[in-house]
């Protein structure tokens, strides 16, 4: 069975992008269930899939995150990866679906889990908001705060990859991706066609789909009067090429294959490299010899 990709709410388990997308494991209401039941549910996933990657947003209640860490500790398992990226809830749901797509490929659990950090860089996530008065995850100036109290004001906010905030006007836009993407739009209680009618064409999106904004979006953005959006790479072949083009290493602690400088299962980072003095001198001498041979000097 492929590595299990889990989310903390049913509304974060998006419909499959293609026929190969594996179902998401939904760990809903972890903080409301008895601890022994939560432990049993996670143990069942490990028994069925071998490894588990849990994605959760920074808007998740603290009790849910604490329960996740408690379950992982009680199971004493280095086969559970807890991943909380710097993405709004809709962007996290998209990332989870990308990992579900990749779970059907011949990627080891460590590489698949590490792919989450890599693919985050290719996601553009933001929202159209009726107010930024309670927005604390993107820098907001005093002028924008003042304007948010004016009736009818709307603000376009990009949270990732680079924070950006503009007051919606006929000529206002956000910096978009420089590569072809699809856009997913999550509608909240705000009524507007700016995202689908202005932003999506400006970003030259190749396809557009709509859904409801996740329940955690209101807490993340500070208001439920919003329309959340996320531009992403939809094709499995492109995602697979991106992941497999990155050099793989072996975690020196748990021995699993990873990409990048952090093992998402045991959280170990590469040990510091201490190069002795003689080796440095030898290396420098080798460089001088190579330069002399290639320049004739």
Mean model confidence by pLDDT: 86
Please state the overall shape, judged from the principal axes of the Cα atoms. globular
What about the largest sheet? 6 strands, mixed
Cα end-to-end separation: 61 Å
CATH architecture of the largest domain: 2-Layer Sandwich
Structure, described:
- The chain is an alpha/beta fold.
- It has two domains: 4-108; 124-232, Hypothetical Protein Tm841, Chain: A,domain 3 (2-Layer Sandwich), CATH 3.30.1180.
- It has nine helices and twelve strands.
- The strands form three sheets. Strands 7-6-5-10-8-9 form a six-stranded mixed β-sheet, with helices on both faces. It has a four-stranded parallel β-sheet with strand order 2-1-3-4, sandwiched between helices. The protein has a two-stranded antiparallel sheet with strand order 11-12.
- β8, α6 and β9 (207-212) form a beta-alpha-beta unit.
- α1 (35-49) crosses α2 and α3 packs antiparallel against α4 (109-120).
- The longest helix has 19 residues, at 277-295.
List the defining traits of the structure above.
single chain; 297 residues; alpha/beta; Hypothetical Protein Tm841, Chain: A,domain 3; 6-stranded mixed beta sheet; 4-stranded parallel beta sheet; 12 strands; 35% helix; 19% strand; disordered C terminus
């Amino acid at each position: 069975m492929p590595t299990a990709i889990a989310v903390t709410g049913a509304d974060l388990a998006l419909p499959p992008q293609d026929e190969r997308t594996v179902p998401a494991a939904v760990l809903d209401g972890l903080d409301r269930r008895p601890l022994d039941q939560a432990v049993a549910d996670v143990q069942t996933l490990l028994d069925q899939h071998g490894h588990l990657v849990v994605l959760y947003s920074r808007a998740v209640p603290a009790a849910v995150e604490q329960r996740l860490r408690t379950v992982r500790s009680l199971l004493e398992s280095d086969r559970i990866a807890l991943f909380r990226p710097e993405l709004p809830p809709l962007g996290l749901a998209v990332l989870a679906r990308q990992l579900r797509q990749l779970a059907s490929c011949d990627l080891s659990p460590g590489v698949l889990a590490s792919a989450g950090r890599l693919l985050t860089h290719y996601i553009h996530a933001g929202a159209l908001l009726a107010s930024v008065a309670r927005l604390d995850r993107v820098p907001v100036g005093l002028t924008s705060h003042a304007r948010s109290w004016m009736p009818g004001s709307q603000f376009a906010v990009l949270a990732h990859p680079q924070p950006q905030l503009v007051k919606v006007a006929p000529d206002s836009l956000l910096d978009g991706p420089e590569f072809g993407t699809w856009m997913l739009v999550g509608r909240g209680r705000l009524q507007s066609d700016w995202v689908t009618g202005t932003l999506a064409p400006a970003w030259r999106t190749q396809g557009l789909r709509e859904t409801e904004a996740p329940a955690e979006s209101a807490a993340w953005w500070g208001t439920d009067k919003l329309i959340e959006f996320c531009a992403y790479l939809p094709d499995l072949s492109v995602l697979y090429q991106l992941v497999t083009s990155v050099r793989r290493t072996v975690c020196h602690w748990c021995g699993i294959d990873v990409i990048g400088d952090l093992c998402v299962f045991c959280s170990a980072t590469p040990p510091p490299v201490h190069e002795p003095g003689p080796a440095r001198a030898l290396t420098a001498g080798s460089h001088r010899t190579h330069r002399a041979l290639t320049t004739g000097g």
